[in-house]
Amino acid sequence: xxxxxxxxxxxxxxxxxxxxxxxxxxxxxxxxxxxxxxxxxxxxxxxxxxxxxxxxxxxxxxxxxxxxxxxxxxxxxxxxxxxxxxxxxxxxxxxxxxxxxxxxxxxxxxxxxxxxxxxxxxxxxxxxxxxxxxxxxxxxxxxxxxxxxxxxxxxxxxxxxxxxxxxxxxxxxxxxxxxxxxxxxxxxxxxxxxxxxxxxxxxxxxxxxxxxxxxxxxxxxxxxxxxxxxxxxxxxxxxxxxxxxxxxxxxxxxxxxxxxxxxxxxxxxxxxxxxxxxxxxxxxxxxxxxxxxxxxxxxxxxxxxxxxxxxxxxxxxxxxxxxxxxxxxxxxxxxxxxxxxxxxxxxxxxxxxxxxxxxxxxxxxxxxxxxxxxxxxxxxxx
Length: 382
Hints:
14 helices; two-stranded antiparallel ribbon; 9 strands
């Protein structure tokens, strides 16, 4: 059931604010986490002065992301002489917008009943509950792959239209890289579809609310631990970050496919990369980490093994589920940044060989084992 229009507008505003905040915060997290790993102080110079005082709010360099954004907006927009001006202008937006749209089908919380949260709305909504999801689509997982595949079009447009050989080479690398690792991602997801029997992301999350053997949470990672590892690796590769950043490869291609971009056009490419970190974390959380679920937490409260139940107010359950989802996403974002500052860059031939000769066979083996196990268990149930 899709939420009514007023609630959908609230969801959209929340999602936009969340993703833009993540994009800003992750620039700071990347700097500070890299500094901690390298035993450095990191970014700590940008500050905001309280008016009419000498008090400077530094907050561990948190304002560096805001300073970067302002700098991108105010810098001169140097315009190269491209092959195609329309394609050159569309490139950053075709890369940025689909990344934002992916979040529309990701459930960021459980069900919310407006009439229970606000008694004044009880007459309009009664006890009806709506999923905390902008677009509750039966084919949500297919929409994710459709939108995520569109980003490569922006990359290719940017690289080709820039009239720069380095940019074109970066775009060609990005295209072949996406084809290679998108296939691996799709094969890892098929195993989950066989287990849960749906491509509806909200339904997948709800099926992860129970337990396995009465102890382990019924999360996708417990059913498909190997697929989870392959999926996360392929997703990081699709985001074109170290050790898979061959389409940019500053030491080889200057800035890769966006070499000829400046000011906020270049900022859109960079911002899309950081938002995609959050999207990958949100999608991995939804598919493999139970989404907004905590072990033994239901819409009514906690139900512990043995039948012990602790009822919670509806508002507290909603907030707990939303915070649980955000915490999982934040931890996964930090892990991706950890990988970025830990591993060296692959060579181009190693990158493709790793996808086609290592990850693809493993994904096929995992899918084959999953098919056999699901068929055997269904045979026993019959």
